C-alpha cells in the first residue's frame, strides 16, 4: 500500500505541534502535488493504454509496456554551469534570433526541476527552429546566474506581445511560473514611470527592475487532448506519440553536483518532448514550427 495519505500526514504534523515549521509544510505540499499528479495520470491511463488496479496503483497494459521508451534522439544538450556553457548559450541564442529575423519560426519549451525548500535547482529550455536540430539548455540554478545567461533566458522565455513566430510551451506551468518569477531570473527593466516613482538605486547598484506583466506561454496540459481535464505528461506522450516516459528520476536529488548523465537526459526530455508534441501537430496553437 501507499501508507498514510498526505492529508493524514498533515493532521499528524499539526497534532505534533510542527504546524509552524515551513519546511515541513513545503515538503507536504510537494507530496500532495505529486499525489495529485499520480491521480491525474491514473484517471487518464485507460485512454493511454494504462490500467489501474483496485488499490489505485498504475499498472501498464501489455500494449503500453511494449511502447518504446522515450529517449534523447537528435537533441543537443548544453549544460550551462560555468563560463564555457555560458558562452555557448549566448552564441546559440544569437544564432537562433538571427534566423528568427530572417523569417524562421522559433519554438521554445520550458521546464524546471527543484527540491524544496530551494526555489529552482535546474532550468531546462528547449529551442527549435526549422532546419536545425533542437538544442536544450540545462541552466544550473544552484550557483548565481550571470547577467548574460539571465539575458538569454529572458530573450527565449518572454515572448513579445503579438509575436506569431515566437512561441513558448510549458506543461502544467503554474508552479514553474511561480518559481521562475520568484527567482527574479525573468525580471525586466522598470518603465520610466515606475522608475521615477521609486527612490534611485544606490550608487553602483543595479537599475530598477520588475517582474514581467505576463508570461505568454501555451500550457499544453490545457490544450484538450481528449485525456481528461489534466492529463499527465506520461499519459499524453503515450497517447499522442506512442512512447513511454521513464519517470523514475522525477524525485531524484536535483541538488547533487555534478548531476548524473541520466538526470541531465531526463531533465532535457521533460522540455524537449513538448517540442515533439508540437511537431506531432495535435496540440492547438502549436503552429507550423
From TrEMBL:
GO terms for biological process: nucleobase-containing compound metabolic process. Coiled coil: none annotated. Residues 35-62 are annotated as: Disordered. Residues 218-279 form the 3'-5' exonuclease domain. Residues 35-45 have a biased composition (Acidic residues). One of its GO terms (molecular function) is 3'-5' exonuclease activity. Pfam families: DNA_pol_A_exo1. This is 3'-5' exonuclease domain-containing protein. It comes from Alexandrium monilatum.
Amino acid at each position: 500500500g501507499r501508507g498514510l495519505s498526505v492529508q493524514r500526514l498533515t493532521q499528524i504534523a499539526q497534532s505534533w505541534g510542527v504546524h509552524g515549521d515551513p519546511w515541513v509544510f513545503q515538503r507536504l505540499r510537494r507530496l500532495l502535488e505529486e499525489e495529485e499528479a499520480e491521480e491525474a495520470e491514473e484517471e487518464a491511463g485507460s485512454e493511454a493504454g494504462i490500467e489501474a488496479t483496485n488499490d489505485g496503483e498504475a499498472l501498464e497494459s501489455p500494449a503500453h509496456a511494449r511502447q518504446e521508451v522515450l529517449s534523447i534522439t537528435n537533441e543537443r544538450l548544453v549544460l550551462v554551469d560555468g563560463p564555457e556553457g555560458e558562452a555557448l548559450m549566448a552564441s546559440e541564442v544569437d544564432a537562433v534570433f538571427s534566423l528568427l529575423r530572417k523569417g524562421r519560426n522559433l519554438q521554445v519549451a520550458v521546464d524546471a526541476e527543484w527540491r524544496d525548500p530551494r526555489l529552482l535547482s535546474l532550468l531546462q529550455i528547449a529551442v527549435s527552429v526549422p532546419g536545425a536540430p533542437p538544442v536544450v539548455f540545462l541552466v544550473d540554478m544552484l550557483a548565481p546566474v550571470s547577467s548574460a545567461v539571465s539575458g538569454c533566458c529572458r530573450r527565449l522565455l518572454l515572448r513579445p506581445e503579438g509575436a506569431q513566430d515566437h512561441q513558448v510551451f510549458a506543461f502544467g506551468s503554474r508552479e514553474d511560473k511561480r518559481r521562475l518569477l520568484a527567482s527574479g531570473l525573468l525580471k525586466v527593466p522598470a518603465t520610466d514611470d515606475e522608475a521615477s516613482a521609486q527612490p534611485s538605486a544606490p550608487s553602483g547598484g543595479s537599475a530598477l527592475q520588475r517582474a514581467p506583466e505576463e508570461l505568454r506561454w501555451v500550457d499544453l496540459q490545457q490544450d484538450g487532448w481528449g485525456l481528461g481535464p489534466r492529463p499527465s505528461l506520461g499519459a499524453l506522450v503515450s497517447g499522442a506519440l506512442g512512447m513511454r516516459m521513464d519517470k523514475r528520476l522525477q524525485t531524484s536529488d536535483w541538488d547533487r553536483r555534478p548531476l548524473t548523465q541520466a538526470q541531465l537526459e531526463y531533465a532535457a526530455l521533460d522540455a524537449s518532448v513538448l517540442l515533439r508534441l508540437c511537431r506531432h501537430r495535435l496540440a492547438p496553437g502549436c503552429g507550423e514550427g
